[in-house]
Every structure is written in C-alpha cells, then in structure tokens.
Amino acid sequence: MNIDYKINQAISAEQFADLLRRSTLGERRPVDDAECIKGMITNSNLVITAWDDETLVGISRSVTDFHFCCYLSDLAVDLSYQNLGIGKQLQIKTQAQLGPKCMLILLAAPAANSYYEHIGFKQNDRCWVLNRSEKIKI
C-alpha cells in the first residue's frame, strides 16, 4: 500500500466529515453540522492529508502561527487504516511545516491519551477548556 501525503490539498466538507465518521473522532465532532464542518476545514491554515489513491484515509488539521505554537485540532485516520503508522506520519509532516521553535499542542482523545507520550509528547496539566455553551464568569 502506497499512502500519498499532501500539504494543504483542498478537500470538501463532505470528505472531511466522511473521514471523521470513519475514524474514532466522528463521535466527538459535529459531523452532522455541515456549516460547522465547512468552517472547521476552510479556516484551518495547515492541513496534511493522507490518501490511498483517491480515498482520503487520514488528516492532521491545525491552526498555527508557524513560529510559536500549532494547535493540532484533529488527527483522524480511517479505522481500516489504523496501526499502519499513518497518524504518526501525519504528525511528523505537520511538525516539518513548523518553525524550529514552534510547539505542537493537542488535546488527546480519551482512548489515545497514552499514545502521545509514547511518541515524545509531554503531558501538560495546565490546559483549560471553556466550552461554547459556557460563559466566562464576571
């Protein structure tokens, strides 16, 4: 199997949502909200995709300034293509696009939490999340 990796290859919201459904991320992403999915993919400024011929099988979707920090928002690999090193290659290729001082930051899916330490990430207990349904207390 020859997987082809592409940097900032345009993909449709439908392709993105379909891949999320075929991965473990579909259950934690708004795959049935077409407007949100479209905004997620069109407003990302670093997208690395993995292709098996014409089939999108993986994605690393990030928002970054390329110099200080890169938030890797989605790392998804089709379930039938997992454990082949595609996710790791997507991260390597993402990091290769960043400046030498740029941190790669992500929030791990519960089932993948132990994976990231194995490949060199350091766990940080200083992350805070405010969901959109919540308001900043005044």
UniProtKB/TrEMBL annotation:
InterPro entries tied to this protein: Acetyltransferase_Butenolide, Acyl_CoA_acyltransferase, GNAT_dom
Gene3D superfamilies per UniProt: 3.40.630.30
Protein name as catalogued: Acetyltransferase (GNAT) family protein
Keyword Transferase: yes
Organism encoding this protein: Pleionea mediterranea
Keyword Transferase tagged: yes
Keywords in alphabetical order: Transferase
N-acetyltransferase domain mapped to chain residues: 3-138
Molecular-function annotations in GO: acyltransferase activity, transferring groups other than amino-acyl groups
